[in-house]
Amino acid sequence: AFENAASAASDGPAADPASFPDLIREIESLAAHAHPRVAFLASLRLVALGHSRLAQTLVNRLPEASESERRQIVHALSSISTPAARNANIALLADSAERIRYQAAGNLIDNFSDDGFADLVDELLRPGSPLRASDISFGYRTRNLPASTLQRQGRRLIDSDSPRLQALGILLAVSTAQDRILDSVDPFLQSDNPYVRAAALRAAARDPARFEQALPDALRHPSPVVRSAIAQAFIASSSSEEISISPDESVSLTLQSD
Hints:
Blueprint: H1 2-10, H2 21-30, H3 36-48, H4 55-61, H5 67-76, H6 83-92, H7 98-125, H8 138-141, H9 147-158, H10 163-174, H11 179-185, H12 194-204, H13 208-219, H14 224-237, H15 247-250, H16 252-255
């Protein structure tokens, strides 16, 4: 009964521990139980309630945890911002399960802000990483981050050797609407990779003159990805005198290259 209750509770909103002192004391005693499964579930629930000192207990279990247990752990860590929780979320960015990677990415940005976002980029740049843009929902997740952070991390991705990451970096960097960032996009308007060129076109759409200059070559491009980027830029500009780009909308462009 306790296992069922704790498993269900780990996916729900955290209750206020102060409202249930007797129950909390009972769960704390179970966290030291000799049976590993009982101790795990008790620790899981306490961490979800904000008991950060037990986060390391969950971290220690990760190497032997099943996918279901890892999913419970990453959800419990959503309320914890300790170094142990950060390290666990970084490790879970490389998990084999997409849902777990997605939650770990959210934990890092929500709880560790700029540093957490840098951790995400580190993992994206790591050779062989399973992490993809589609695991993260960059446009949604990064909307509250400072422009300086988006520019800095976007620049790191642009400087990578991966066309997929270059495309993502362009979209991130130009979401801050800085003219000097737009200038750095110009070379990518002639990229041989359709995803990189499409991202550059969406970025250039912030500047009507820049976009119009790139338009003739883009219209002759054989790739439907590039032509789609042109259409999206025009759609985005239909309600404004200037062509604009939305990070939430534009990030979908990079997902096709995953």
